[in-house]
TrEMBL record, chains A, B:
Pfam families: ACOX (PF01756), ACOX_C_alpha1 (PF22924), Acyl-CoA_dh_M (PF02770), Acyl-CoA_dh_N (PF02771). Keywords: FAD, Fatty acid metabolism, Flavoprotein, Lipid metabolism, Oxidoreductase, Peroxisome. Its EC number is 1.3.3.6. Belongs to the acyl-CoA oxidase family. Residues 72-141 form the Acyl-CoA dehydrogenase/oxidase N-terminal domain. This is acyl-CoA oxidase.
Length: 691, 691
């Protein structure tokens, strides 16, 4: 691959720094490096790769077989208990899972449905008895299953689901029922074809009391005939915008009876006589605890989105260092795309954001492992984990879509060919922005946390879009720490003397500016909302709604700050001076483009002078030019090989074609058979006429 | 459909205004209303609709048959000469063509390849003899054909193509040759399967002189066997990110001989003895003239992108007025999505932009018809048309992608289902951003025009990314008028007394602010580039490149101004007072969101005070709330019926399901069988404990 580097990319930049690609690559692999490398080996296997152009039926069949390969290769059981053949390794499990996105996002998400959702629910919500009974079959794929939570009528608002599980003491059974069409379970993976069983979420009713959402193990299909069991029904969601290897569908239940013991009873149980008990007294907190396993999905999607962004940028930047277009600077040699300022503007800030998101993800993953391994598993830790996952998953999944699209356009028509991966990955990742928590809803969850950290007033917040979804979180717990920890350090001298944007190169200044913005936005919106939580419901909701946009932008600002902090923290671990220098510049690019993106805010709030603001964009352009020689190194450090990229334009074919063309013209010129250009003749005639 | 309106949407808004949907619908149909309505009837035919989930091979077969239906239905010949069965109606032809996007973008673009490119090239570049010989077969689809211009190696840089057509006086033939792989024609529609012939663009060489790019009629395949003729070859581009009904492919020619008379010789001819002649002396201008027919493609894509945006917004806004989520304001009734501020922020500014783009497109279409009908066909008119088409096509195709994506996300998981259209349309329209002129290149063409209007210095600009592509335009013509006509009216009092954003409601103020920005940006970049055009090529290119980003942003600002002006001009034609009021507010929303988008510029250039800037966002939120009751009327005015929308979520099914659920709960509550909520019991117990 090395000999494909253009001279410009080979150069070490005007500052003499150069990147130690191998060392940077190791740093990017993070704490679970070995597992990541194993998973990449797996993802490189041709039999796991997406085949384009299959019908959705063929794609589903292939994906199901591929899940079998994952089992054979022992690639998906790391999170399960050691006594059942797993390794109780939660962080490692997610690390490996994330890497599967390069093989086929359908394989990844179908594996996520089977083991990350269905299996995890049995593991986390069930007793040891439940685990022993069902996990072996789930792990081996003998029992393909569903995670039947979402209903048509309520999407992200899980607390409002309408499916009921009513206890009948006469038969010691629960009766599972979907009373109307809006209560049908929808978008359920494995529901249309493969699922033999499901964990069904339903309102648990016993002795006339609704104890809220609980999870039940329900058999769906006869394992032999694959027909639905009596009372169970469903329809196929058919073709989707992507992820067509997964058989999503709807499920409905007409008074389906299951044994009492099929209630996954870790956080709530019903005795034979119908009496309810729970180790968690508060229904809100109980709901939150049961939904806590969902965070794993968000953590995984964050990592998968980062991986897809890396693949896209490697392909597009490789191509941009080879592809030439328009002869700007010479009569015979055209300019390499990445030497155009606009092309740098399109790709390099996205590269910087990808690095920031990658380092932020690694922090999130460690936090996740701390909680799920039990190493640090306080309520506070869980709250922090929820907030971080919501913040990072939203930003990174949107970033992946944006990056895939920009890369696709930056490669022109070639970018549109499915063989170059962008369009296919983009179609599959599209839904990452709205599943496992709609990004817009998740950012409101983050905003809620920021408000609660800011003022006790909002701690018991219980309405609006912030309501149902987070009711458990709001009801019982005191939150603090992650939210505004950094902001207190804000130093109020950001309007200081230097007038050029160069002053923004200073790390502390960047931090101050980003943190000050978060702090100010939180304070402003909290002030605007003051008292709203105690008003009559309708009035309070109205006031909240009038500030909904601000709330979401505040959450985004907070998430950006956390990404910047993660990038900056990661710099400390980079020992090679050249790599450190280049990566610091990349971090500066990230910080500066954030400030540029929100420049209106900085200006209208008096945080930056007009004079300095005007120098920002040209300064960023200079930073881009300085980073350009390192661009290829920075994407090579992602460590994806041809078996992961699988893009024709990343193979060096463009350079080969150009060499062939160049050689042709060289020979032609030498032969003196080359036709003369009419324009040249006209110029000569003109010159002759002037004499 | 009317009874699906929510009470909120039925209301006439707090200002008492209401929209005359029918009259507004007629205004939107524009000058070729009858043809549009005919074309919509055609596009509503089930046999022309996209069937999802076909393999690309099946989709190609279906699309080819669908082209036959278009011929039968007399839907695609309007531009051709009356003597051959057409109607010499260029504006009408494009109007009808645009509407086909709602049936299947593949059908639209395949029709565009056959008649808009291949047929148009024969018509515009050939003699009457050529027309009589080939057009009947092209019109009837007896000769499916290709427009073989783009080469792998040169994409948008058409002047640099490497295919040669060398005249051999011994046999009175041209020899068509692709000397190396980079010269292969690429992304050519109809090339992989259906094309029997092609208009091939090649460097015309005779008597040792290269006279530049000319077009040649070349037979590709045996009409009976469908095998390539000797010397012709190609490969299938296979699956793409979308538009898979079109058989794109590569073509190559190994010294293929064609009769001398197959040169489409309207703008350049070779006599039997090999002598070259042309009615256009300048090679640059000749090139530009021959490429002039390409503008039709850009005009059409602009219109198609607007149509797709309309369809998307109708579906998403219909759903947003029915779908309820989270009970913010009441215990039993959830809030309709479109009542959420953020949802308004996501959809309504895009609705305003769609109106602006629609009115701008109508202006472009009339300009196009003026030029192609010969009514106003000066060089200046052609230049204006080129500039407008480049400006509007770039903005509207990007806008369509952005709108389709936002609508898809705003509908959550339902938006991801292919049956709801967004993902399918988005995949197909993706390439609109880079074909028929890459948007980034087109905006540079606009920037070039702005510079030339600003100063003579840039009139002969001939390098950089602005070079090859526009060389003909730069070389011979004096440009003026469209570029900066409005800017001279700038009144320098924009920093006037009023301090609230409400002052921006004033039409003249909006115009001043938008126009001032364009003028200032042009002047600044022109100053920065001063002298660069006369510097040594390499140095000049470097300076240009250092300002490439600014150039592109300047062009975008100009295009936005033109859209705003088109919207404002269209208001004059709206006579119904209620409609005028609502549409004026929508135009304000468009203007205000443009100012908000570029607020950093206005602030750092002292065009708006910090104080006023801070009031802008809340003011826009109030405008959104005022427009919200009219949202459904504004999308209904687009006039697309269920046969065009074909989206399950736009059928009222969501409302039906909710009514069913609501009725269930009403009955349950009345029956007193309803389970009591555990939370309610706890609250009661708590209250009891307090007593």
């Amino acid at each position: 691959m090395t000999d494909l580097l253009t001279p410009a990319a080979k150069a070490s930049g005007d500052d003499g720094a150069s990147v130690d690609v191998a060392a940077l690559g190791r740093a990017l692999l993070g704490r679970w490096a070995d597992i990541r490398l194993q998973a990449r080996e797996l993802a490189g296997m041709p039999e796991l790769h997406k085949v384009e152009g299959l019908t959705h039926t063929e794609h589903r069949e292939r994906a199901f077989k591929q899940l079998g390969i994952l089992v054979e290769q022992n690639g998906v059981h790391r999170a399960f208990p050691s006594r059942l053949g797993g390794s109780d390794d939660h962080g490692g499990n997610v690390s490996g899972f994330e890497e599967l996105v390069t093989a086929d996002p359908s394989v990844q998400i179908k594996a996520g449905v089977q083991w990350g959702l269905f299996g995890s629910a049995v593991m986390h919500l069930g007793s040891q008895e439940h685990q022993d009974k069902w996990l072996p079959g789930i792990m081996s794929l003998e029992i393909p299953g569903c995670f039947a939570m979402t209903e048509i009528g309520h999407g992200s608002d899980v607390a409002s689901i309408a499916t009921t599980a009513t206890y009948d003491p006469a038969t010691e059974e629960f009766v599972i029922n979907t009373p109307f069409r809006a209560a049908w379970k929808e978008f359920i993976g494995n529901a249309a074809v493969d699922g033999l069983a499901a964990v069904v979420f339903a309102q648990l009713v016993t002795r006339g009391v609704n104890h809220g959402v609980h999870a039940f193990y329900v058999e769906l299909r006869d394992p032999d005939t694959k027909e639905f069991l009596p009372g169970v029904g469903g329809i196929d969601d058919n073709i989707k915008g992507g992820l067509n290897g997964i058989d999503n569908g709807r499920l409905h239940f007409a008074n389906v009876r299951i044994p009492r013991t099929n209630l996954l009873n870790r956080y709530g149980d019903v005795a034979v006589d119908g009496s309810y008990s729970s180790p968690i007294a508060s229904p809100g907190r109980r709901f939150f605890t049961m939904l806590g396993t969902l965070v794993q999905g968000r953590v995984s999607l964050d990592g998968a989105a980062v991986a897809a962004s890396k693949v896209a940028l490697k392909i597009a930047i490789q191509y941009a260092t080879e592809r030439r277009q328009f002869n700007a600077a010479s009569d015979t040699e055209e300019v390499v795309l990445l030497d155009y300022q606009r092309h740098q503007r399109r790709l390099l800030p996205r590269l910087a954001t990808t690095y920031a998101a990658a380092f932020a993800h690694e922090q999130l993953l460690q936090k996740f492992d701390d909680v799920f391994s039990g190493a640090h598993d306080t309520d506070e830790d869980r709250q922090d984990l929820e907030t971080l996952a919501a913040a990072f998953k939203s930003l990174s999944t949107w970033h992946a879509l944006d990056t895939l699209q920009e890369c696709r356009e930056a490669c022109g028509g070639a970018g549109f060919m499915v063989e170059n991966r962008f369009t296919s990955l983009r179609a599959d990742l599209d839904v990452y922005a709205t599943f496992e928590g709609d990004n817009t809803v998740l950012l409101q969850l983050v905003a809620k946390r920021l408000l609660a950290d800011y003022s006790k007033e909002f701690r018991n917040l219980d309405f609006g879009v912030l309501a149902r979804f987070v009711v458990g979180q709001a009801a019982d717990l005191t939150w603090h720490r992650t939210g505004l920890r950094a902001v207190a350090q804000f130093v109020a001298d950001s309007g200081s003397a230097q007038k050029s944007a160069k002053a923004l190169k200073d790390e502390d200044t960047q931090h101050e500016m980003l943190a000050d913005r978060v702090q100010t936005m939180v304070a402003e919106v909290a002030t605007a909302l003051k008292g709203a939580a105690k008003m009559p419901k309708e009035k309070g909701a109205e006031i909240f709604n009038e500030h909904q946009n601000e709330l979401i932008e505040t959450a985004r600002a907070h998430a950006e700050l956390l990404q910047w902090e993660a990038f900056t923290a990661a710099l400390r671990g980079i020992t090679d001076p050249g790599t450190h220098k280049v990566l610091t510049r990349l971090r500066d690019l990230f910080g500066l483009t954030l400030i540029e993106k929100h420049l209106d805010w900085y200006l209208m709030n008096g945080r930056i002078s007009m004079q300095r603001a005007r120098t920002l964009s040209p300064y960023i352009n200079r930073v881009l030019a300085k980073l350009r020689p390192h661009a290829l190194d920075l994407v090579d450090a992602f460590g994806y090989g041809p078996e992961h990229l699988r893009a024709t334009i990343a193979t060096g074919i463009e350079r080969e074609r150009q060499d062939e063309a160049r050689e042709y013209y060289r020979t032609l010129r030498a032969s003196k058979d080359a036709p003369v250009d009419e324009k040249v003749l006209l110029q000569k005639a003109k010159a002759h006429g002037r004499k």
